[in-house]
C-alpha cells in the first residue's frame, strides 16, 4: 500500500484495487482529485439539466397517466406539467442582466433562478371539448402528449449517456 491507494502487481504494472483520497496509482506516481473537482464533473449545467429534465419527465408521465386513468371520472379536469420554458430560462441565467454591476453583491436585473431551483408547474390542460359529465380528458391528446414525453425522456437519457461516455473517455485516455 502506498499512501491511500491499494496496489497489486500484475504482469506489467500496477492495478487499482480501491479508491480513496488517491484516485489512481501507477508505480510511484499517484493521481488525486479533490471532492470539488469530482463534484464539478457531475454538477455541470448539462448534467444538471438532464437530471432535472428526467425528474420532470417522470412527474409529467404520472400526471398524464392519471389523466388517462380518469377518462370516465365525472368532473375530472385534465392536468399537465410545464417546465421547458423555466429550464431554458435558467440554463441561460449565466448571461448578465441588463444592469451594470460594480460589486458581486449588486443585482444585475436578471430575475432568473438557478437551474437547481427550477420547479415544474402543474396546470389544467386547456381543451375546447368538455364532455357532458364535466370531464376534460381527450384521450387522443393525452396519448400524443405521453408519446412526446417518452421521446423527450429518451433523448435526455441519451444526452446523459453521451456526457458520461465523454467523461469515461477523458479519464481512460487522458
Describe the model.
It is a single chain. With 174 residues, the chain is of the alpha+beta class. The protein contains four helices and six strands, in the order E-E-E-E-H-H-E-H-E-H. The strands form three sheets. A two-stranded antiparallel ribbon has the order 1-2. A two-stranded antiparallel ribbon has the order 3-4. Strand 3 and strand 4 form a beta hairpin. Helix 2 runs antiparallel to helix 4. The radius of gyration is 24 Å and the shape is flat. The two termini are 24 Å apart. The N terminus is likely disordered.
Features:
single chain, two-stranded antiparallel sheet, 4 helices
Gross geometry = flat
Query: Based on helices, strands and strand pairing, what is the structural class?
Result: alpha+beta
H/I helix tally: 4
Low-confidence stretches: 1-37
Report the count of strand segments. Answer: 6
How do the strands line up in the largest sheet? 1-2
- Report the sheet with the most strands, covering strand number, pairing sense and barrel closure: 2 strands, antiparallel
Provide the β-strand percentage band: 5-15%
Short structural description:
This protein is α+β, with helices and mostly antiparallel strands and 174 residues long.
Set out the fold topology.
Layout: E1 7-10, E2 13-16, E3 22-26, E4 29-32, H1 35-42, H2 45-69, E5 79-82, H3 84-91, E6 121-124, H4 139-173
Antiparallel strand pairs: 1-2, 3-4, 5-6
Helix pairs in contact: 2-4
